[in-house]
Amino acid sequence: MPYPSRHRAYASLGVVFIILLILHYLGAIRPIEQFIRNIIMPVFGGLHTFNIAVGDNYQFFRNKEEFIKNYQQCIATTERQTTLSADNIRLEDENNELKKQLAYIEKNKPLFVLAQVVGREISSIGQTIIINRGTNENISIDEPVIANNGILVGKVIKVEPDISIVRLVNDNQSRIAASILNDDRSLGIVEGGFGISLQMNFIPRNEVVQVGHQVITSGLEKNIPRGLVIGIVASIENEAYKPFQRAILTPGTELNKLTMVSVITNP
């Protein structure tokens, strides 16, 4: 039977353990214990160092992921703040410009003289209309003429007591200081094209102009207030060998169908 042999083995181990315990307390095996400790301690020390290194590496990689995540969030927040800051600056500029225009209007109080179109001169080089108002209504040369809700159609070029001649914006000799309502508020000169088209020249090449952008008067021209609608960008010509780009415009209204206009006069 194997069981008595196993019991005897357990009993023998128990007796050995008790003897070793007694000898330990008596200090009889201290040299042996010290020898074994000298062998085992470096091993345990290495294992402890390895465990710490593994823990540090784990913490490093975990912190690295958190750092990258926080860094990306910081970049996104900075971009949003930059966009908001740019929008605030733009709105502040527009608000200041509006205040200036309102102050100008309040100070100068321009008058609007309603006039009827009574004649038209159409030639290969000119586009003009005749209106039934003149110096009797305080109309002067170079004053702007508008249609509908502030759409610039031309400027007065000749005045008599009861009539005035207006050069339309699509006339070959027409020149209007203009601005595009894009992010850059691009400046340029709107010129007529023999009564066929409008084109805005001298637009800086590095500024973004898109089809559909609105073009208004820039206010940089005598007697022409800022904000009168001229037209809409229909196409852009931006060639590498030219210093400026050019925009072809669609007029803000049908210039060949004008019947009633208003002249903006200064008191």
UniProtKB/TrEMBL annotation:
Coiled coil residues, start to end: 81-108
Domain Rod shape-determining protein MreC beta-barrel core intervals: 117-264
Keywords: Cell shape, Coiled coil, Membrane, Transmembrane, Transmembrane helix
Lineage top rank: taxon: Bacteria
Transmembrane segments: 9-29
InterPro entries: Cell/Rod_1, Cell/Rod_MreC_2, MreC, MreC_beta-barrel_core
Keyword Transmembrane helix in record: yes
One GO biological process term: regulation of cell shape
Cellular component terms per the entry's GO annotation: plasma membrane
Function per UniProt: Involved in formation and maintenance of cell shape.
Xref: NCBIfam families: mreC
Similarity comment text for this entry: Belongs to the MreC family.
Name listed for the protein in its UniProt record: Cell shape-determining protein MreC
